[in-house]
Amino acid sequence: MTISMPAERIVILTGAGLSAESGLGTFRDKDGLWTRYDLNEVATPEGFARNPALVHEFYNARRTNCLEAQPNPAHEALARLQRAWPERVTLITQNVDDLLERAGALEVIHMHGELTRALCAACGHRWDAPRQMDPQAPCPACGRAATRPDIVWFGEYPYHMEAIDTALRAADLFVAIGTSGNVYPAAGFVQEAATSGARTLELNLEPSATASLFDAARFGPASQIVPHWVAELLE
Ligand code: APR
Fold first, then answer.
1. 151 neighbors 63 (Cβ within 8 angstroms)
2. Which atom of ligand 1 approaches the CA of 180 most closely?
3. Residues identified as active-site
4. Residue 216: partners with Cβ closer than 8 Å, 6 or more residues away
5. Which of the residues 2, 22, 50, 187 could staple to 69 if both were Cys, CB 3.0 to 4.6 A apart?
6. In whole angstroms, what is the distance from residue 114 CA to residue 130 CA?
7. Which of 12, 22, 24, 26 gets mutated to test ligand 1 (max ligand atoms within 8 A of its CB)?
8. Ligand 1 centre from 16 Cα, in Å?
9. Ligand 1 binding site (Cβ under 6 Å of any ligand atom)
């Protein structure tokens, strides 16, 4: 079965490996974020309740890295694909950076939230995050000092799951790019798509934890294998 056969509806899930070559690092590789920070302290509601200043410090540093980073050829290739086939390409990301948008993507589904957005833990108001967030800063809507990064933490339910499930059920081709397949529900999307009849392809530096569930795979740095795959589709 050739994966680059033109597919009507393509659903793409991306992970930290897509932005690794933009310098944003990953979570579980050598020197990954979770090897340097305790995710229970900085990526759970309990950690935020215990020490909101530490959590804001962690995301302020990631937000600065993100704003200083540039999209890489993989982001640009996915944006090119979605602009060429806007009705056929669904971009879902676990990443909280805005590099796909800055590469020109038309619509990105951020299932784990976005560094560029802030959320009020008291009233649910959302707004564009300042470069540096401060736990004492009042919510623009309700005035209470309950601001948090608009990021989905462990133990919280990912965003846009209805839209994602609808897209997976309709997919002809599901492609996972630069994700280790360790975190659910994202790690289960390949099975959901395959059950609905989609062909499945993994693009990664090395086989992920769910590699055996994919029909096909290509290995190498995203900045090389993603533009190559997109060029095959578009030619
Ligand atoms: N090109 C392609 N893939 C790469 C590259 C690269 N240059 N560098 C690393 N990778 C791959 C690794 O092989 C691995 O499969 O990226 C993946 C990174 O895995 P993780 O660090 O686990 O990142 P991810 O899968 O996105 O994590 C999922 O876990 O901590 C939570 O919310 C966080 O969204 C994150 C989720």
1. no
2. 15
3. 112
4. 1, 3, 199, 200, 201, 202
5. 22
6. 12
7. 26
8. 4
9. 15-17, 20-21, 26-29, 32, 94, 112, 178-180, 182-183, 204-206, 208, 221-222
> In the chain, what percentage of residues exceed pLDDT 70?
97
Contact present, 227 and 73 (Cβ < 8 Å): yes
CA distance 92 to 128: 20
Indicate which residue's Cα is closest to atom 23 of ligand 1. 16
CA distance 145 to 140: 10
- For 95, 119, 173, the CA distances from 19, given in Å and listed in that order, are 8, 24, 22
| Amino acid symbol at 61 | A
* Whole-prediction pTM: 0.96
**C-alpha angle 222-223-226 in degrees, rounded to nearest 5:** 60
Other CB atoms within a 10 A radius of the CB of residue 183 amount to: 17
CA of 95 to the centre of ligand 1 (A): 9
Using the mean position of ligand 1's atoms as its centre, give its distance from the Cα of residue 25 in Å: 8
Q: Could you tell me the domains of the chain? A: 1-22+71-112+158-235 (3.40.50.1220), 25-68+114-151 (3.30.1600.10)
CB count within 10 Å of CB 128 equals: 9
Question: 89 alpha carbon to ligand 1 midpoint, in Å?
Answer: 21
The pLDDT tens digits for 162-216 are: 999 999 999 999 999 999 999 999 999 999 999 999 999 999 999 999 999 999 9
Residue closest via CA to ligand 1's atom 16 equals: 17
Q: Which residues contact 76 (CB under 8 A, 6 or more apart)?
A: 103, 104, 227
